[in-house]
Design brief:
- The structure holds two protein chains of two kinds.
- Chain A is α+β, with helices and mostly antiparallel strands.
- Helices cover 28% and strands 32% of the residues of chain A.
- Chain A is built from one helix and five strands.
- In chain A, strands 1, 2, 3, 4 and 5 form a five-stranded antiparallel sheet that branches.
- In chain A, a hairpin with a 2-residue loop joins β1 and β2.
- Chain B is of the alpha+beta class.
- Chain B folds into two domains: 108 residues, Jelly Rolls (Sandwich); 91 residues, Arc Repressor Mutant, subunit A, CATH 1.10.10.10.
- In chain B, 43% of the residues lie in helices and 20% in strands.
- In chain B, β4 and β5 form a beta hairpin.
- The two termini of chain B are 31 Å apart.
- Classes of the chains: A alpha+beta, B alpha+beta.
């Protein structure tokens, strides 16, 4: 288990996750970030308010960025 | 001697006679944050009368997720239905903010409600109140936005702990509200930007109570209406002397 932090990038601003979450693998952290990004979209669509996020950034406990999930990559694909 | 000076509203509201019945059976109890008082389908062995802190009633799903359906504290009783032949728990009661109070054995309380109709009715009203609250919260969870729900939740918690400082992690908040932690991060940032709260790791400070009233949904007032009608409880003045909305 390791602690992962899910910061939110909003323009020039970084909204820091101050607590982090214990997760078993980097893969689990990425799945968590995907879920979070989708929920942020859902909240914004439902409320009609600003999304307030460009990407969910996954960081480790030393503050290093591991990867990031851009908001526009998490939307469901249109069926062909 | 009635319990008129008890910090617990249920005990404080009992008649002198009912107080005499209950008092010899009370045992002091301290419950740390995170303690599970009972889980769904458990037999409720003790009725708990909190003086301080907050107990959440949560509904668990097989995925391991759970969501809060209501909260109780110094205003009420945890397990009010148990002495009324409802001793099988319908949900999980978990300590959200460290709590001190008193317990009484369900078996003893069952006997006492046979001796006193007024004591039985007091428990019935508290059970109805818990049910009214969970119904309101069900509607709130389904239809209201996270910002409104979080504001309602902070106001309710603040009323029970009588403090503007709430010892709550975002992890816990997100579990109670049934959302991802990132959603709480963004909404908390917004409330912080407009000066309603200040969030520090593991601690939320309420800065502007009137502002939180404006950002919350009707459910806060509706739940307090149920509290008032069914058990005669209204959130009182806080540490800063401001009054919560009726």
């Amino acid at each position: 288990m390791a602690r992962y932090y899910f910061h939110i990038k909003d323009g020039a601003e970084l909204v820091k996750d101050q607590e982090g979450t214990e997760l078993p693998t980097p893969d689990a952290a990425r799945r968590q970030a995907l879920k979070s990004a989708r929920e942020l979209w859902a909240n914004a669509i439902r409320s009609g308010k600003n999304l307030g996020a460009d990407a969910v950034i996954i960081a480790d406990e030393y503050g290093g960025t591991l990867t990031f999930v851009p908001m526009n990559e998490v939307l469901p694909k249109r069926p062909r | 001697m009635p319990f008129s000076d008890s910090p617990n509203h249920f005990l404080a509201s009992l008649s002198a006679r009912d107080s005499e019945l209950v008092r010899p059976h009370l045992k002091a109890r301290q419950l740390p944050q995170g303690e599970v008082i009972y889980s769904a389908e458990d037999t409720i062995e003790h009725v708990y009368f909190p003086d301080t802190g907050v107990v959440s009633l949560v509904v668990g799903l097989t995925s391991g997720q759970f969501v809060e359906a209501g909260m109780l504290g110094r205003n009420s009783v945890v397990g009010a239905a148990a002495p009324l032949d409802g001793s099988t728990a319908l949900n999980r009661a978990i300590v959200q903010v460290e709590s001190a109070g008193a317990t009484a054995d369900t078996a003893v309380m069952k006997r006492l409600v046979k001796e006193s109709e007024t004591l039985r009715l007091a428990l019935v009203r508290n059970d109805q109140m818990a049910s009214a609250q969970t119904q309101q919260v069900a509607a709130c969870n389904a239809l209201h936005e996270l910002e409104e729900r979080l504001s309602r939740w902070l106001l309710q918690t603040r009323d029970l702990v009588r403090s503007d400082t709430l010892p709550l992690t975002q992890e816990f908040l997100s579990q109670m509200l049934g959302v991802q932690r990132s959603s709480v991060t963004l909404v908390a940032r917004k409330l912080q930007e407009v000066g309603l709260i200040n969030y520090r790791r593991g601690r939320i400070h309420v800065l502007d109570v009137e502002g939180l009233h404006e950002s919350c949904c009707e459910c806060y007032a509706a739940i307090n209406g149920h509290f008032h009608r069914l058990i005669g409880w209204t959130p009182d003045e806080n540490a800063h002397g401001r009054r919560a909305a009726p």
